[in-house]
Design brief:
Elements (H helix, E strand, L loop, with lengths): L2 H13 L10 H17 L4 H18 L12 H26 L3 H37 L15 H14 L5
Helix pairs in contact: 1-2, 2-3, 4-5
C-alpha cells in the first residue's frame, strides 16, 4: 500500500462526510480510524473535525456488512453515557456538601459509604456497557464485506470479490 493510496482513501472519507448512503470497505474504515486516532492524540482541538466524517463512514461500514446504519450508534454510546455519569457525579458532590450541614458522626460516615457504593456500581455498569457496545462495534467493523450487491449498493472491496471468486472456482469440479 503506497502513501498515495492511503492519502486518497482518507481524502475520500473526508469528502464523503455527509454521505450516509453507500458502502465503505474495511480498508477505508480502518485507515481513517487510525489517522483519526493519531490526529486526536496530537491535536485534540480537531476532534470535532475528525468525528464528523467518522459518523458517515461508520454508517457506510455498517451498510457494507448488510446492517442498518443505526448499528453505528453503538460506537457513540460511551460518549452519551459520559454525560449521565458526569451529571451523577455533580449530584453526588452536591449531596455530600448538603450532608455535611445536616448529618454528624456515624450518620455522615454511613451516608458517604452509601454514596461511594452507588457511584462505584454506576461506574462499573458504565464501564461494562461501554465495553460491550464498543466491542460489538469493533467486531462488526472487522467482518468481511458482503460480496454481493445489497440494498446500499455494490461491494466496494475488490479484494473481497476476488476472494469469493477464487474460492468458488476451487470448489467446482474440473472437467478434463
Amino acid at each position: 500500500m503506497t502513501f498515495n493510496e492511503i492519502k486518497d482513501s482518507i481524502v475520500g472519507s473526508v469528502k464523503n462526510f455527509k454521505d450516509f448512503n453507500g458502502r465503505a470497505d474495511r480498508k477505508e474504515f480502518w485507515l481513517y480510524t487510525a489517522v483519526a486516532f493519531v490526529v486526536n492524540m496530537l491535536l485534540p482541538v480537531l476532534n470535532i473535525l475528525v468525528i464528523i466524517p467518522y459518523v458517515g463512514l461508520s454508517v457506510r461500514r455498517m451498510h457494507d456488512i448488510g446492517k442498518r446504519g443505526y448499528w453505528a450508534a453503538l460506537n457513540f454510546v460511551p460518549a452519551v453515557l459520559s454525560i449521565g455519569v458526569w451529571f451523577l457525579a455533580v449530584i453526588a458532590g452536591l449531596s455530600c456538601f448538603w450532608a455535611q450541614e445536616e448529618l454528624y458522626g456515624s450518620e455522615l460516615e454511613t451516608f458517604y459509604l452509601i454514596i461511594c457504593i452507588v457511584i462505584g456500581l454506576v461506574l462499573a455498569g458504565y464501564f461494562l456497557i461501554c465495553l460491550v457496545c464498543v466491542g460489538v462495534f469493533i467486531w462488526l467493523c472487522c467482518k468481511k464485506s458482503q460480496p454481493e450487491t445489497n440494498q446500499w449498493g455494490p461491494c466496494p472491496a475488490v479484494d473481497v470479490k476476488a476472494d469469493y471468486v477464487s474460492s468458488a472456482e476451487s470448489t467446482e469440479p474440473k472437467s478434463e
